[in-house]
Design a protein that fits this description.
The protein has 283 residues and is mainly α. The chain contains 15 helices and no strands. Helix 6 (75-87) crosses helix 8 (104-122) and helix 7 crosses helix 12.
Length: 283
């Protein structure tokens, strides 16, 4: 087939992009979406891309509908599974980076995508809980096995929030003619960056930390503090003192001295644990 060798030589993300472009234009895809829409009022209109955007907006009912369709035999089931895979690509990338070993990211990404397809075709439809959470747990179990209870990457994968991204920005990046092979995963990087930042602010607020103004740098600080709390590197008081630094607020001289002491102790402990944090988050 003309172009096959060239396609095989490109990064896996670009191959998925090409496959998605082809699938989203197929008559069989349009027929499946029309069939699903006929029995479900409010089904997203606008083709496969619109369905992907709706799935990324955490529509559990839609996710269940697509996963049920993915478990049907024949071509329609495969198309439905591929639509869900497209919606969950940021999650697949995150798991691939956490699972990658000697084979490198591209091999791991292909393996994780295959596991995701398997999960979509077999995950019990009657299981309680959000469908996305069930999918994620099934994938973590298959990818990490018994290591999932102790492996930091597996724990992060289990606790990761839904794989939201900015669909418009994602599509723009993918469609850009300037994208290079080295930046083939940049679209997923954007989604992962947005996910990590939003997740850090949400978890920080739940932990009683001062979230502050949302920014990439602030998100990285909060992620570090949350990791340190989870690993018992710092105390809750030290985490709060560090998160509140530079955020304003009235303090008496006595309370300011106590906060400064807690902050200094927290910084000292974070420095001692820095190598552990970098080793775990680099996975």
């Amino acid at each position: 087939m003309p172009g096959t060798s060239t396609l095989a030589a490109t990064p896996y993300a670009l191959r998925l992009n090409a496959d998605w472009t082809h699938l989203s234009r197929r008559p069989a895809t349009a027929a499946l979406l029309k069939s699903l829409a006929a029995g479900h009022p409010g089904f997203p209109q606008g083709g496969a891309d619109a369905v992907v955007c709706a799935l990324r907006a955490d529509d559990d009912a839609l996710m269940r509908l697509l996963v049920a369709a993915a478990q049907e035999p024949g071509e329609s089931g495969q198309i439905a599974a591929r639509i869900v895979i497209e919606a969950l690509r940021p999650l697949a990338v995150r798991l691939a980076r956490q699972h990658a070993e000697a084979g490198g990211f591209q091999d791991s990404f292909a393996h994780v995508t295959a596991v995701l397809f398997q999960v979509l075709r077999t995950v019990p439809l009657t299981r309680r809980g959000a469908m996305l959470a069930n999918i994620r747990m099934e994938m973590v179990g298959l990818l990490f096995g018994e290591r999932r209870k102790h492996n930091p990457a597996a724990r992060r994968a289990i606790n990761t929030a839904r794989p939201l991204g900015d669909p418009a920005r994602l599509a723009t990046t993918r469609a850009s003619g300037a994208i290079s092979l080295e930046l083939a995963d940049s679209a997923e990087d954007l989604a992962l960056g947005a996910l990590a930042s939003a997740d850090a602010f949400s978890r920080a607020r739940a932990a009683g930390l001062a979230a502050g103004e949302e920014s990439g740098e602030r998100g990285e600080l909060l992620d570090l503090l949350l990791w340190a709390l989870d690993q018992r590197v710092i105390t809750t008081g030290q985490a709060r003192a560090l998160s509140e630094h530079g955020q304003g607020g009235a303090e008496t001289a006595a309370s300011r001295a106590a906060v400064n002491r807690a902050r200094e102790r927290g910084i000292h402990r974070l420095r001692e644990a820095a190598s552990r944090y970098l080793a775990e988050t680099a996975q």
